What does this fold into?
Amino acid sequence: MEVLEAIRGRRHIKQFKPDPIDEATWMSWLQEATNAPNHKMTEPWEIIVVGPEARMNLRHGANFGDAPVVLAVLSKRGASQIERDENLMAVACFLENLSLIAEANGAGIRWTSIGWQEHARQVLGVSDEYDIANIIGLGYPAEVPQAKPRTPIAEKIRRVP
Ligand SMILES: Cc1cc2nc3c(=O)[nH]c(=O)nc-3n(C[C@H](O)[C@H](O)[C@H](O)COP(=O)(O)O)c2cc1C
It folds into this structure.
């Protein structure tokens, strides 16, 4: 699949098929996602594989779209606010890589921001050293939503002399 095709075709998946994804397969996708840019090679991403008990305790309303795999994607906070922000940006790149790899393999991701809630940190036992950038459901889509139209980029560009 061409990169542009994956970028255009990638969607936030709300509901997944029950079909499992082989662990070796999604592990290889995570490995490829580490090719993301990251300042000073901090490689700030860390992953928690969320098992059934923790998943239930997270109490996500839609149960991550019944995804066969749920992963909490952490970002190391680092030693300063700048490092923390840059690390989160690097983890966003990691997540986009993972989304595009999933798309290219007929799979997809459901994003959830519940990791920003204290409750999720408690359930997953995450220390103050990390942000939980996102807790994702990963699987094969039951349905791929329509793309939402984007604003022409020209409307978001300004120039300074
Ligand atoms: C950082 C981030 C956090 C998100 N958190 C949520 C979320 O908590 N719940 C949700 O339904 N979608 C979440 N999304 C997905 C967006 O709603 C989705 O990307 C947007 O509607 C555009 O749809 P598309 O990804 O299919 O193009 C998140 C996306 C990002 C990048």
